[in-house]
Backbone:
């Protein structure tokens, strides 16, 4: 499946400003990831470190914390990784899509709301 970008808003679950940005939708990624400076600027707490494997097989370790993520008017508190800086550093992963009840339409490269959760 190809990747595409979608507008998102990210904020601290405890309140405050929400930042608007474009994020890459990547169902191959389990967690969402944003530049560490963005999450630190929103005062999102670093709760735990998690180890992961990138698509090229290299291993990485990132901090994880709770972020309020809004896509298409739907929001929820989702795990977010404190990632590297860069133009393509904001990624929406499968966990966020499941929490906010979206599925990917790969042909039209859009997110669609689902009406039922998978149990």
Residues:
């Amino acid at each position: 499946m190809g990747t595409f970008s979608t507008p998102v808003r990210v904020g601290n679950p405890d309140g405050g400003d929400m930042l608007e940005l474009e994020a890459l939708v990547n169902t191959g990624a389990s967690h969402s990831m944003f530049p560490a400076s963005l999450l630190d600027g929103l005062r999102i707490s670093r709760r735990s470190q998690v180890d992961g494997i990138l698509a090229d097989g290299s291993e990485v370790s990132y901090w994880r914390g709770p972020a309020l993520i809004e896509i298409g008017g739907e929001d929820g508190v989702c795990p977010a990784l404190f990632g590297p800086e860069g133009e393509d550093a904001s990624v929406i992963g499968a966990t966020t899509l499941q929490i906010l009840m979206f599925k990917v339409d790969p042909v039209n490269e859009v997110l669609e709301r689902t009406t039922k959760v998978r149990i």
Q: What stands out?
A: The beta strands are 4-11, 18-25, 32-35, 48-53, 59-71, 74-83, 91-92, 102-105, 110-113. The longest helix spans residues 36-41. The chain has two helices and nine strands.
